[in-house]
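for ur thesis appendix - Biopolymer transporter ExbD. copy paste whatever u need, i formatted it the way the template wanted (i think)
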Amino acid sequence: MRIEVPARRRNLISLTPLIDVVFILLVFFMLASSFLDWRGISLNMPPVSEVGRVHDGSLELRLGVDGSVSLDGEAVSRDAALRRVGAAVSTEPDRLVIVRPEGEVRLQTMVEWLEALSGAGATNVSLRQG
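the 3d part is after this line
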């Protein structure tokens, strides 16, 4: 008498749950991340020989902690300062604009001013310690 042992059936691993998990992770990371257009602002440091030197014909923009703005020692509004800088750089494109933040001015405020000055046409902008 011969006893036949049934052939052992091989268990197959289904890939469907794995694909579902990968898809859910993909959707999660797509929704959790932000796709903003980050732009860098190039800041060039002046040479050591020019750090303390005052440039003739430059515009000096002082930013106060309380939001006050003065251009060449005269208190002005933000719009007036940008208009004056725009007018000055339209006649002389390489004119230096020195931005001097005072005390504890927020970095975001300085970045907003640098972007606004760039929008006004200023290409030669220097950030100095107030």
